Structure formats: C-alpha cells, structure tokens
Amino acid sequence: MNNPSLLRIAVQKSGRLYEDSVHLLKECGIDLRNVKDRLRTVSENFPIEVFFLRDDDIPEYVEDGVADIGIVGQNVLGEKDRKVNTIEQLGFGKCRLSIAIPKAMPYAGVASLQGMRIATSYPVLVGDFLKRNNITASIHEISGSVEIAPGIGLSDIVADLVSSGGTLFMNGLKEVETILDSQAVLIASNSLDVERKIILEKLLFRIRAVKKANKSKYILLNAPNDKLPQILALLPGMRSPTVLPLAESGWSSVHTVLNEQEFWEKIEKLKEVGAEGILVIPIEKLVL
Ligand code: PRT
Ligand code: ZN
Predict the structure, then answer these.
(1) From the CB of 76, is ligand 1 less than 6 Å away?
(2) Is the Cβ–Cβ distance between 69 and 201 less than 8 Å?
C-alpha cells in the first residue's frame, strides 16, 4: 500500500530538466537530501516523495497513477498523448520542435517538404504537422543524433528540438518551420484523492510564489521630493510604492516591486526624471 499522505512527483533522473526541477522544489522550501544517485527520496519537511525517471516515461507513470504529478517537457507530453492534466507552465526547459533543412536547399514554404525523408525522434508531432499542412513525406524515427541524419544520407531533412540553434548551425542545417514551442510543465493524474489534492494545492501555491518572485525585482531609490510625482507615476507597486523620508531634508526613499519585462525601460525613465542611487534586489518569494 502506498502511503496516502505523500504526494508522489516524477522528475527527470538526469538530463536537461533535472537541475531546474530539483531547484524548483528546493526553492519551494522542500528539503531533498541525497538526491544524487537515488531513484526515489522522501522530503523531510513536506509530504512529498520524488521519483527520478527517464523523461519519456513520466507521462505514462502519471496517467497510470504510479506517480501523482510530474515535471516534463511539452514536447514529450505532445508526443506521448497520455491522459493527464497540465496544471502549470514552469518557465524552464524552453525549446522548440522545428523542421530544419540543409543550408543550400531552396525553401518556398511548407509545400517544399512534399516527398521529403524526415529524420526525427518525434514521429507523432511531426506526422500531425504534415497532416495539418496536407504534406506527404516519409518519417524516419531515430532516437538521437538526429541532426547528422542528412549528412550521412539517412534523410533529406530533420525535425528536432532547438534552443540556441548552435547544433543545427554546426551541422549545416537551417530552421524553416516551428512545429511546437515547448517548456517544462507540471502534469497531474486525473484521479488524485482529496488528501493529495490538498498537498498539490500547497505545492502549487509555493511554485506560483517562486515564479512571481523570479519575474520581479525589489527596487529602492532616492528621489528629490519635487520629482516624486513623476517618479511615482512610473511605478506600479503591488498596492502603491512605499515612500519614506530620508535623513537629508527634501529627499525621499522609494521602494517598490518591478516586473522583469519592464525593468530596464523603467530604470532608464526613473533616472531621466531624477531618481538616484537605484538599488535592485532579487526577491526570494512573492505572495500576493
Ligand atoms: O534520459 P532522458 O530520456 O530522461 O533524457 P533525454 O536525453 O530524452 O532528454 P534531455 O535531457 O536531452 O532533454 C530533456 C528535455 O529538455 C527535452 O524533452 C526538452 O523538453 C528540453 N530541452 C530544452 C531540450 C533542449 N532544450 C535541447 N536543446 N532537449 C534537447 N535539446 C537538444 C536537441 O535535441 C539538440 O540536440 O539540444 C540540441 C539543440 O540545442 P541547441 O542549443 O544547439 O539548439
Ligand atoms: Zn528522453
């Protein structure tokens, strides 16, 4: 019998998602000791048990209820087509599944893919893409080193994951179509009992606080009082910015939280309207 008071999470055992997955759990305040070289571990301060698995197997384990939740790339999820719920995008493991062709090959849109031999580890996603676009092409499923396939005559073109584009470039290939944009997501079984749902809610609450914190910065700046209206007009704040008098009369200290996306633009504008001594501090957790 499984201990019903533990939420079982499946994460990648080693590979590109391992570090970020374990880091996220740790940022959520979950103690995981001796995770290296272990297949499972139970946290000492949160009711969670972690299973370390190959990423390809995670959707199946979660569908079957062997694990309650899991962290996996949307690319794997799309390829495996398992009945699980996607409950949160996690913002790491970002990549795209793209079609790439030899640099010298002419390309005039998807019609150019007609009749091609495509090497890929994602036959389902690629097959769907071809069908949507009314293209007939042959798919050669290979499990790794896809990018060398055209060079050794195994295929004409490839469909593979791309992040920086460096691997394609080094193999003389160019990206021509994006099939899927992907990132790591939290998935959950359809049949969680009430007790595990409650633990999952607690975990999700923490994950969202960590994500918000990672996207935000705490800003402190000094402002001459006569410039305060213009400075405050630039700042959103959570309620409103905090304004405190400085020891030097005529000056105030302004504290607020800024979103990562608008950060640089705001900082430049704040300087233009008279803000000085701008201090930027990372936020560990943000609970709204
Ligand atoms: O052993 P296991 O089966 O668990 O791992 P794996 O070898 O199948 O997967 P792994 O660890 O390579 O990747 C795990 C997940 O990371 C993937 O399923 C994606 O969701 C995500 N991810 C993010 C990537 C990449 N970025 C990525 N760049 N997965 C693979 N790549 C490979 C790509 O296949 C190509 O070979 O990196 C190369 C391209 O990278 P760039 O930067 O040169 O474009
Ligand atoms: Zn894998």
Answers:
(1) yes
(2) no
